[in-house]
Design goal:
Blueprint: H1 19-26, H2 30-39, H3 48-54, E1 70-74, E2 77-82, H4 91-103, E3 114-121, E4 124-131, E5 134-140, H5 152-173, H6 176-217, E6 221-222, E7 225-226, H7 228-260, H8 266-319, H9 333-352, H10 362-378, H11 380-394, E8 403-406, E9 409-416, E10 420-425, E11 428-433, H12 434-438, E12 442-444, E13 455-463, H13 468-481, E14 492-498, E15 502-510, H14 517-534, H15 582-585
Antiparallel strand pairs: 1-2, 3-4, 4-5, 6-7, 8-9, 8-12, 9-10, 10-11, 13-15, 14-15
Helix pairs in contact: 2-3, 6-7, 7-8, 8-9, 13-14
């Protein structure tokens, strides 16, 4: 084995020795010292001579085992990476032994006393890193990273430089002034952090208040849907996320600053700063790269909105009757406008998809698949309602303003939508899902009425002892007295059935335009009872066993018996004759 001179780094107060002198002085010790350092922790207490005698010869390159690299880290600072084992000593054991030897250095060792000397044992060549006469570790040629192209001398110089930084940091950490200064600066920075967080949240609250005021003053709709509340929720979410992000960045910077005030944790601060700069630079690069795609998406959606506005103007003209098309009646124009708008937006989204930043990533595709699966599983009922709504709208079975009966509900149609139909009955708005409406029988009283108004009818059963002509006259008189029933066309009485015990009569009239169906029917029933009582004709709808001796009627003297009060006269349409008083009825 041949020794080499030092790497140009001498001890303080000593001249640089010649290579020949160094070789003569260290020739007996270099083989033993290099073997002891490379073997490391496996045989830390063995004598140098024993190590030299028992060290096995290096295995051929093809037979050497592959070991995991190990990094020597001192005071949170990486020093060197060990990549090959030396004999039975793995890279991890080499790093552990070097750390123990560095911790055992005397306190009076100065940083400039750390040097790296070249050495060789057989075909194993490398450097010995030592302080004074104490060898800390060895660096072999197999420890070099082939991807970087660094030489053995460069790796040794870097390891020595980092070791000197560790020793200087260890000396500074032991000084009370350095510790107290770091604590004071960290607390001061923490106070500034608290103030900054308070300012961020205060600004966020003010922005939220302004957004709340602006939301009430603006109107935003899409496909007939009011978007003010969703847009307000999105804006509030963006403000809160921005506030949390600024607070997190401020806390991150404070943490990095506080860690940099102490020598032991200064490497962590440098890593935090480097990581933040890397993240911000990567984010900025991605943002700049996404600008062309976002511009293309903006153009596509602006074009889609322009097309929808043109179609809205055209279809609204059809809905208002300015344009007549046989294929698109006015009562289906609103639903058609919504369907066309949805189709245009879906087409625009399809075209703009490839320009959306991140659309080609696996994460974006996974989210798209998840959303599609959720929509597929949860929209079965919605699709059923939509298809039923299309049947109701394009079959033109119902129109707004018509009087209809759907199941047990009778009222005027106020809205026919894609998902539900709304009726106004008894002063209430009743919503019927279109799927239910398609599956039930709907009676339309207004469709065939035209200008005469919808039909209103009621049925009554009277015994055979009452002349049918008299019953007809009484029913027509009751219809004439009822507010809300048109005088023209005249009401009509039909005999629907001749049952075993009574005759079934049906009274049909035309409802006035502003009359409420339920209230009008109730008033008609009251007038029928009054007219029949006035004429002494009993109403016996249920079956009976024998004809009563007297007619079952309410005497006129008991019509307003206590505690009942006389009813208020309802307003009558113009031209309707006044109701006769009790004397005239008698």
């Amino acid at each position: 084995m041949t020794g080499r001179g030092r790497s140009g780094v001498g001890r303080s107060g000593r001249g640089t020795r010649a290579p020949a002198v160094f070789a003569r002085a260290w020739r007996p010790f270099l083989p033993v010292t290099l073997a002891a350092v490379l073997i490391g922790a496996a045989l830390p207490h063995a004598a140098p001579t024993a190590l030299a005698q028992t060290a096995p010869p290096p295995a051929p390159p093809a037979a050497r085992p592959v070991a995991e690299p190990a990094t020597l880290v001192l005071w949170n600072r990486p020093i060197v990476v060990f990549r090959i084992p030396v004999g039975p000593v793995s890279p991890a054991e080499r790093a552990a032994g070097a750390a123990r030897r560095f911790d055992a250095l005397p306190d009076d060792v100065r940083p400039e006393e750390l040097v790296a000397d070249p050495a060789a044992i057989g075909d194993l060549r490398g450097l010995l890193v030592r302080a004074r006469d104490m060898v800390l570790f060895g660096i072999a040629e197999g420890d070099l990273d082939p991807t970087t192209g660094e030489s053995l001398a460069e790796v040794g110089q870097r390891a020595v430089r980092r070791l000197r930084e560790v020793m200087e940091a260890r000396v500074q950490q032991r000084r009370p002034t350095v510790f107290l200064r770091g604590v004071g600066l960290s607390l001061g920075a923490g106070a500034i952090l608290v103030l900054l967080l308070w300012l961020i949240w205060r600004a966020a609250d003010r922005i939220l208040l302004r957004l709340a005021d602006a939301t009430h003053r603006r109107a935003v709709s899409l496909v007939g849907v009011d978007l003010r509340r969703p847009i307000d929720a999105v804006e509030r979410g963006l403000v809160r996320v921005t506030a949390w992000g600024l607070g997190a960045v401020a806390a991150y910077l404070w943490l990095a600053y506080a860690l940099s005030q102490f020598p032991y944790t200064r490497p962590w601060a440098e890593e935090l700063k480097a990581h933040l700069i890397e993240v911000l630079s990567d984010f900025g690069a991605r943002a700049l790269g996404a600008i062309p795609g976002l511009f293309a998406v903006l153009l596509i959606f602006l074009a889609a909105r322009f097309v929808i506005r043109i179609l809205d103007i055209f279809i609204q003209s059809i809905e208002q009757g300015a344009i007549n098309l046989r294929t698109l009646p006015p009562d289906t124009a609103r639903a058609t406008r919504r369907i066309v708008a949805v189709l245009v937006w879906v087409f625009a989204l399809t075209v703009a998809y490839e320009y959306i930043p991140g659309s080609s990533t696996e994460a974006f595709k996974g989210i798209g698949v998840l959303i599609g699966l959720m929509i597929s599983l949860g929209s079965a009922g919605l699709v059923n309602q939509l298809m039923s709504g299309l049947v109701v709208i394009y079959s033109r079975a119902l129109r707004p303003g018509e009087l209809v009966r759907a199941g047990d509900v009778t009222g005027r149609v106020s809205e026919v939508g894609l998902l539900s139909t709304k009726l106004i009955a008894k002063g209430e708005e009743i919503t019927i899902p279109n799927a239910v409406l398609v599956g039930t029988t709907v009676t339309n009283y207004s469709r065939l009425g035209g200008d005469d108004g919808p039909v209103i009818s009621t049925a009554i059963s009277i015994g055979y002892d009452a002349p049918w002509r008299q019953v007809h006259a009484m029913l027509l008189l009751a219809a004439e007295r009822t507010p809300g029933i048109r005088a023209q066309p005249a009401p009509l009485v039909l005999q629907r059935a001749l049952s075993d015990f009574y005759v079934e009569y049906e009274l049909r009239g035309r409802l006035a335009e502003s009359a409420e169906p339920m209230a009008t029917r109730s008033a008609l029933h009251a007038e029928i009872q009054d007219v029949f009582n006035e004429n002494g004709v009993q109403i016996m709808s249920p079956n009976f066993e024998a004809q009563p001796e007297r007619p079952v009627v309410v005497p006129k003297a008991q019509w307003f018996a206590a505690p009942a009060a006389p009813p208020r006269e309802a307003p009558r349409p113009p031209g309707r004759p006044a109701r006769p008083d009790g004397a005239e009825r008698g």
